[in-house]
Amino acid sequence: MSRPAGPGGPTSRRGGGPGKRPQPQPLPNGRCNPLCPYFRCMNKALTITRRIVRGRMQRVALCRMVGGPCIGPDCQYAACAMHALLPDGTCAYAKEKGSKSAEEVEKEILEELKKEEEELRRAERIMRKHGFEVDEDML
C-alpha cells in the first residue's frame, strides 16, 4: 500500500523534488520580494504566515520586531542568500532575466567599433587637409 508524499517529498511543492533548487521570486517590477526563498532577515525577525487577503488565502511576510508587515528590501536588516539584493532594493536576478542576449551585445560592440573607425578616418582627413602628417600606425 503506497502512502501519499508528505512535506518535502518528491512531489511536494515546498521541497521541489530531489535535485531542484528554488528559484528567486522577485516582484514583477524587479524589486526584491520578502516571500522569496532567498530573502533573509539578519535580525531573525521575518515570519511568513497565511492570511485572508481580499477573500483569498495568501502568504504574508511579517516582522516580529515591529509587529507589522515586513517592508522587504527597504529594511536595514534585509539580505539575500544569493547576494542578488542591490542597494536600490531591486533583485539582480530580475535584471539578469531581462538582460540582452550575447548576440545582441556582440552586435552593439561591432556597431561601436564601426563608429570609432569612422571617427578616426574623419580626423585623419581633417589633419591631412590642414597639412599635418598622419602616422600609419595610428590607424
- Domain tally: 2
Oligomer: single chain
Quickly count the helices. 2
What percentage of amino acids are in beta strands? 15-25%
State Rg.
27 Å
Low-confidence segments: 6-13
Q: What's the story with the biggest beta sheet?
A: 3 strands, antiparallel
Class computed from helices, strands and strand pairing: alpha+beta
What's the arrangement of strands in the largest beta sheet?
A: 2-3-4
Measured between the Cα atoms of the first and last residue, the distance is: 80 Å
Share of helix, binned: 10-25%
Helix-strand pattern:
EEEEEHH
Mean pLDDT: 81
How would the global form be characterised? Answer: elongated
The overall strand count is 5
Task: Sum this structure up briefly.
This protein has 139 residues and is of the alpha+beta class.
Outline the secondary-structure elements.
Blueprint: E1 39-41, E2 46-53, E3 56-63, E4 68-69, E5 78-80, H1 92-97, H2 102-129
Antiparallel strand pairs: 1-5, 2-3, 3-4
Structure characterization notes:
Residues 1-29 are annotated as: Disordered. Keywords: Coiled coil. Residues 99-133 form a coiled coil. Residues 1-19 have a biased composition (Gly residues). With 139 residues, this protein is of the alpha+beta class. The chain folds into two domains: 23-99, no CATH class; 100-139, no CATH class. Helix content is 24%, strand content 17%. The chain has helices at residues 92-97, 102-129, and strands spanning 39-41, 46-53, 56-63, 68-69, 78-80. The strands form two sheets. It has a three-stranded antiparallel sheet, with no helix packed on it. A two-stranded antiparallel sheet has the order 1-5. The longest helix is centred in the C-terminal third of the chain and has 28 residues, at 102-129. The radius of gyration is 27 Å and the shape is elongated. The termini are far apart. The model is unreliable at 6-13 (pLDDT under 50).
